[in-house]
Amino acid sequence: MRINTLTFSPTGTSRKIAQAILAGISLPEGIITDVTHVEACDVLFAEDELLLVSVPVYGGHVAPLALKRMERIKGNGTPAIAVVVYGNRHYEKALTELFDFLNSHGFNVIGAGTFIGEHSYSTPQTPIAPGRPNSEDLAFAKNFGSRIRAKVLNATHPTSVDVTNIEQPQQDADVMLRFKQTVAGWMNEGKSMPKCPTTDMALCTECGICAKLCPTGAISPSSPSSTDANKCIKCCACIKGCYQGARQMNTPFAQLITANFSVQKENKILL
Ligand SMILES: Cc1cc2nc3c(=O)[nH]c(=O)nc-3n(C[C@H](O)[C@H](O)[C@H](O)COP(=O)(O)O)c2cc1C
Fold first, then answer.
1. Among 120, 213, 265, residue to substitute to test ligand 1 (most atoms within 8 Å of Cβ)
2. For the purposes of burial, counting CB atoms within 10 Å of the CB of 217, is it exposed (0-12), middle (13-18) or buried (19 or more)?
């Protein structure tokens, strides 16, 4: 049996989790598909292979571009592991969406995980799960991988899981309600939000790394200060990847999330 991986990971945390799980699974590696910058091509995985999918949560859903770019991946009753990575607020509908996507594409979901990654909006001033996944998270992910290995090697047809049975993260209901009410209030009053990151030209050296890291080609390689807001998905890869710290996006969400979701959540798995 070989293990194939599928990731979308603009700021690298979903990829780190996938790599740690992969180390624990420790089976021969098959196709590694990273759809962060390109769409997956037509692939049909066989019944005796395994697919690990790790994607980030955006607004409580699977990052929409990830689903779009994975559309041409198909299975033939292929066992799959569904992993969503979120920035310590909540993943809400994301895991069920990934589960439904995999089932409708011919996969048999035999394991699932919800993992924490540093929030894309995290900055030194507004830290949100900074440094996660940390070494403990990665050890947990690797152990999850070992348990997947045992499951697939001990059964000819590994049993599917129902992802609604996964343990929910501990979350104070009042805090979540306050957060949602604040966001609803912002939407009602038409609060202005940044549409994409900006560049501080006093710091920018025009090295072009931001344009290379952008999953949607929203940043012009010849003129990195100009970002196409219609293409930008606010993934923050350009901000985190800028050596000069020249890119920023002052979204009010960063402060709101820092204020309400500082209690660190735990990774959860289901097998
Ligand atoms: C546009 C956007 C929306 C996000 N929405 C959520 C969310 O609803 N809940 C949450 O906990 N984290 C949210 N995050 C944080 C990401 O899920 C988190 O940082 C994840 O680790 C990013 O994955 P990556 O490093 O693979 O890009 C959001 C991030 C972005 C860019």
1. 120
2. exposed
> What are the CA-CA distances from residue 232 to residues 92, 185, 196 (Å)?
23, 24, 6
Q: In this predicted model, what pLDDT tens digit does every residue of 26-47 receive, in sequence order?
A: 999 999 999 999 999 999 999 9
What are 102-152's pLDDT values in tens digits?
999 999 999 999 999 999 999 999 999 999 999 999 999 999 999 999 999
For 155-214, how does the pLDDT look when each residue is reduced to its tens digit (9 = 90+)? 888 999 999 999 999 999 999 999 999 999 999 999 999 999 999 999 999 999 999 999
Map out the domains of the chain as residue ranges: 3-170+263-270, 198-250
Q: In whole angstroms, what is the distance from residue 105 CA to residue 99 CA?
A: 10
Q: Whose CA is nearest to atom 19 of ligand 1?
A: 119
Cβ of residue 12 lying under 6 Å from some atom of ligand 1: yes
3.30.430.20, 3.40.50.360, 3.40.50.2000, 1.10.600.10: CATH of 3-170+263-270:
3.40.50.360
